[in-house]
Amino acid sequence: MGELVAEKHVQYVLAAEKRKDDFESVLMEHLRMNGAYWGLTTLDLLGKLDTVDVNEVVSWVMSCQHESGGFSGNVGHDPHILYTLSAVQVLALFNKLDIIDVDKKACWILCFLTIMLDIVNLQNEDGSFSGDIWGEVDTRFSYIAINCLSILHHLDKINVEKAMKYILSCKNMDGGFGCTPGGESHAGQIFCCVAALAITGSLDLVDKDLLGWWLCERQVKSGGLNGRPEKLPDVCYSWWVLSSLIMIDRVHWINKEKLIKFILDCQDTENGGISDRPDDAVDIFHTYFGVAGLSLLEYPGVKPIDPAYALPVDVVNRIIFSK
Ligand code: BD7
Ligand code: ZN
Q1: Residue 257 burial by CB count (10 A; 0-12/13-18/19+): exposed, middle or buried?
Q2: Nearest bound ligand to CA 283?
Q3: 48-79: per-residue pLDDT in tens?
Q4: Residue 71 half-sphere exposure toward CB, CA atoms < 13 A
Q5: Distance of alpha carbon 242 from alpha carbon 304, whole angstroms
């Protein structure tokens, strides 16, 4: 079996940060905030976050904050809760959420308060969350709201009980979760619901054996994981499925060695980067989720990542358990 070509992936990510005009960058232009989170978290997991210019990244992130408090995916785009989480995660990686450590204190307090108020305003009467002012509802947004507010130590500002009740209303007979009540079970959505329940300490509300069964059935012959029955395996599902299995304590139900081999087989061992499946083109998204998957699989040389917050464990310990 091949090895993780960590140094090549670091070079790939550093180059991707600078590229602005190739095919992948144009596709990802409106998702640049997410791209920053995927790239920088990959670097941190590989022990190389110190190779980037913190001030440059943080000032770019802040240039994407809007008056409402939310962030956009790039300068001049509309804000959405999807990008607010990535922005908060990037600030967390750089330890910029602690006002004692940052200059212009008052300005930062205001920044955090507006983020908090923006998210609180997105909660609906039934406990669900909308993603932005246009109102689309999805359990993805419940997860994001809960992750952000937990990181900011403001979970008490929303109705957590109603938020959990809404998530449980999206639970299906097969043990999985969908994006709204009655929506088909999908590994990405399951991750969002399970992680939200984990962060609020509500995992006892999940049927772990039933859900664990559905999740471990996602492993196919090649060792890779898919997101739904009959679908092709995909490196990013290593994350959505595996993190959920870890949170419900059923990770021993899949074959870890075969999954490691599948992820390593998706590497571009020459130029760095990881693809969705062997021999496809690499991208920054699958590079991050491949490395994050290996982190969950305790691959040597990769820092441990927290399955619920999707941030390195040392970062989560600093933020969540420091106060
Ligand atoms: C998922 C769907 C959305 O409509 C919006 C956001 C998400 C989660 C977000 C993420 O992982 N943040 O860390 N995903 C994405 O930003 C990807 C970006 C992408 C676009 C095109 C090709 C690769 C990546 N998006 C928007 C997706 O829809 C990816 C597409 C994909 C990846 N591999 C095969 N297709 N799908 C995805 O993230 O699915 C996981 C998921 C689905 C529903 C809820 C939560 C997770
Ligand atoms: Zn994928």
Answers
A1: exposed
A2: 1
A3: 999 999 999 999 999 999 999 999 999 999 99
A4: 30
A5: 13
- Other Cβ atoms closer than 10 A to 272: 21
Q: Residue 82: CB within 6 Å of ligand 1?
A: yes
Residue 76 is predicted with a pLDDT of 94
140 lines ligand 1 (CB under 6 A): yes
How far apart CA 168 and CA 154 sit, in angstroms, is 22
Q: How many CB atoms lie within 10 A of CB 279?
A: 8
Ligand 1 atom 44, closest CA: 188
CA of 276 to the centre of ligand 2 (A): 5
d(CA 28, CA 285): 10
CB-based contact 73:62 (threshold 8 Å):
no
DSSP letters of 204-271? GGS-HHHHHHHHHTTB-TTS-B-SSTTPPP-HHHHHHHHHHHHHTT-GGGS-HHHHHHHHHHTB-TTT
The pLDDT tens digits for 73-128 are 999 999 999 999 999 999 999 999 987 777 788 889 999 999 999 999 999 999 99
Q: What six digits make up the tokens of 55? A: 């001030």
> Which residues make Cβ contacts (< 8 Å) with residue 228, sequence separation at least 6?
184, 185, 186, 187
pLDDT of residue 99: 78
Tell me the per-residue pLDDT of 155-197, one tens digit each, with 9 for 90 and over.
Answer: 999 999 999 999 999 999 999 999 999 999 999 999 999 999 9
**All residues at 6 or more sequence positions from 82 whose CB lies less than 8 Å from its CB, including other chains:** 34, 73, 131, 140, 144
> Between the CA of residue 211 and those of 185, 188, 194, 205, 311, what are the distances in Å?
10, 13, 10, 12, 24
Match 């937990």 to its residue by tokens.
150
Which ligand 1 atom lies nearest to the CA of residue 31?
16
All domains in the chain, ordered by first residue: 6-319 (1.50.10.20)
Distance CA 280, CA 10 (A): 19
Distances (CA, A) of 60 to 72, 74, 119, 148, 271: 11, 9, 21, 19, 27
